[in-house]
Amino acid sequence: MAVPPEVLLDLLVRMVRIREFEEAGGRLMEQGKIPGALHLYVGEEAVAAGVCASLNRDDYLTSTHRGHGHLIAKGGDFKPMYAELFGKAAGYCRGKGGSMHIADLDLGMLGANGIVGGGPPIAVGAAWTAKRRGRGQVAACFFGDGASNQGTVHEAMNMAALWELPVVFVCENNLYGEYTRQDRHQTVADVAERAASYGMPGVVVDGMDVMAVHEATHEAVARARSGGGPSLLEAKTYRYFNHIGISPTSSYRSEDEVAQWRARDPIETFRQVLAKDGVLSLEQSDALRARVRSEVEEAIHYAEESPLPDPDTLLQDVYSEPAASATGGA
Amino acid sequence: MTTAAVRQANYREAINEALRGEIERDPDVFLAGEDVAGHEGSFGASAGLLAAFGPERVVDTPISESGIIGMAVGAAATGLRPVVEVMFIDFIGVCMDQVLNQLAKMKYMFGGKARLPVVVRTTCGAGVRVAAQHSQSLEAMLCHIPGLKVVMPATPYDAKGLLISAIRDDNPVVFIEHKLLYRIQGEVPEEPYTLPLGVAEVRRPGTDLTIVSWSAMVHEALAAADELAQRGIHAEVIDLRTLSPLDAHTVLTSVHKTHRVVVAHEAVKFGGFGGEVAALIAEEAIDYLDAPVVRVGAPFSPVPFSPVLEDAWLPNRRQIVEAALRTMPARTGA
């Protein structure tokens, strides 16, 4: 398909935004400035960018523990994102959720999820609402090769297929479930094969190639919007860092393997293509990266300076009504 | 003198009327679960609803409990008001992640920005010879999860009013129906009405001791109170109706008056919700107590199959009477 230059640029911007956000976030975590653990999306940017470029603002998305990239690609704002990672009141979740539960319902982003395989049944529910409303909304459901072994993924695929719901299942196969290689946690190499069990299309794409992801998603989203039901897209991708943080040390995988995947870096590859095709010169993409980097720095500054949550908010939002009437004991 | 006869209905019909009324009233409400549509519910609670509202509002699901709860979470977070059925509370083990980590926590984790108006209807209770995986009372486990409300009606009147309130509530509510109660009759007005969640009911006023109970065990407590009355002991019987949030005020007010307490539930006593009630009284009213709080609950075993064993397992009115007598002062000259 002929892709207009503004769409190509948009894909690059989404990927660069994810990369810069994540690398800076990882450094802050390693420095102890961001509490807890971050699961970084670096290396997998083409998947979120390629998928979300086909989504509208009012489409839904369920995410994973590695969820920052999905929110950024769906249109998430750096400031409340970093504020949430710092545990600040100005965060997307007012400091209650953190990295693993970051969400923006206004963007249809129904949350990162600390439970592997927690999201797919929720995507079915969102797609149920979409079908009931009949406005052509879809739900994109991200999960990993690890989650593809959870029963919830199969329950969700079966239900979505049964009810012909507008779900695009996106398996981000980064070859490892935490630290366990795919061939040691499942027998099939292509998770997409499992789509056949539910009578829906299953497609394997190169998850390092943003255009390939975009084209495959475009088709799956069009099918879902027009009432054609769910699809499964499997993107072969790679996590540059470990399960948590920015350390690349790898007792469970070879340096050679990491280097081979890094040589196919989705951002570098794509910006070379854009330069060769005369869409964006290398200098222009360098400038884009610098702009995003200063936006990241500004957002980090904002988050660091913004106030911590008031301890009085501890019991807020356990229930819809005021906490006092919701707690059990006197 | 004439009195308007209040219509009689059973617990199952009361549930059915609440569902019917709410599905009709609010286009966002739908019912989903295993065999709820074509088969009209394993206990008949959704009789006639598929015919009345069609398959978009009354939905048969695959046997996929995690999928069912997750579907409810996703549908609720995007604006609908699902009522989903987990056929037996025992099956909540299959979908506990979706209940515990998704449904109960989403609002809080998202800083209040999600609304989760979900009712999970399920059934509890022993006595129908279906053994260890279809007979449990697991309410304590659910009450331990912040974010959920837990409702256990004991009468047809309460079942209808509390279910309507649960459906209209913006929080996740686990609504537990005791399977032995479906056939009990009671006064149930035909028109819709709501009862507040978190408000207990004094079923029988009394002065000598308080029996706190809920769900089917309320009826055992009332029978025990009858027996105690024959011995000149006037027991007050409180039906909690909602366990979370707990109506501490009604319990403590009664303790201030009677100074003696028995807490009776069908669930296994160890780790049961009765311990929470006893702890509340110990923390807030120990100076009012004239005797230790006594709990009545099932022994610490799975529910057995053989009727003779199951009957031996089930807590009953006799045990409540014995517990009550243990709280009373030894009578001199008896």
Describe this entry's structure for a reader.
The complex is a heterodimer of chains A (330) and B (334). Chain A has 330 residues and is an alpha/beta fold. Helices cover 42% and strands 9% of the residues of chain A. Chain A has a single domain (5-326), classed as Rossmann fold. Chain A has helices at residues 5-30, 45-52, 68-73, 78-85, 120-133, 151-162, 210-225, 255-262, 266-276, 282-305, 323-326; strands at 60-62, 139-144, 167-173, 176-177, 180-181, 202-206, 231-236. In chain A, the strands form two sheets. Chain A has a five-stranded parallel sheet, sandwiched between helices. Chain A has a two-stranded antiparallel sheet with strand order 4-5. In chain A, helix 7 links the parallel strand 6 (202-206) and strand 7. The radius of gyration of chain A is 20 Å and the shape is globular. Residues 324-330 of chain A have low confidence and may be disordered. Chain B folds into two domains: 9-187, Thiamin diphosphate (ThDP)-binding fold, Pyr/PP domains (Rossmann fold, 3-Layer(aba) Sandwich), CATH 3.40.50.970; 201-327, 3-Layer(aba) Sandwich (Rossmann fold). Chain B has helices spanning 11-25, 49-53, 65-77, 96-103, 106-109, 139-143, 156-168, 217-230, 248-258, 273-285, 307-313, 317-327; strands at 8-10, 29-33, 58-60, 81-86, 119-124, 149-151, 173-178, 185-187, 201-204, 209-213, 235-239, 242-244, 261-268, 294-298. In chain B, the strands form three sheets. In chain B, strands 3-2-4-5-7-6-12 form a seven-stranded mixed sheet, sandwiched between helices. Chain B is globular and about 65 Å long. The model of chain B has no long low-confidence stretch (mean pLDDT 96).
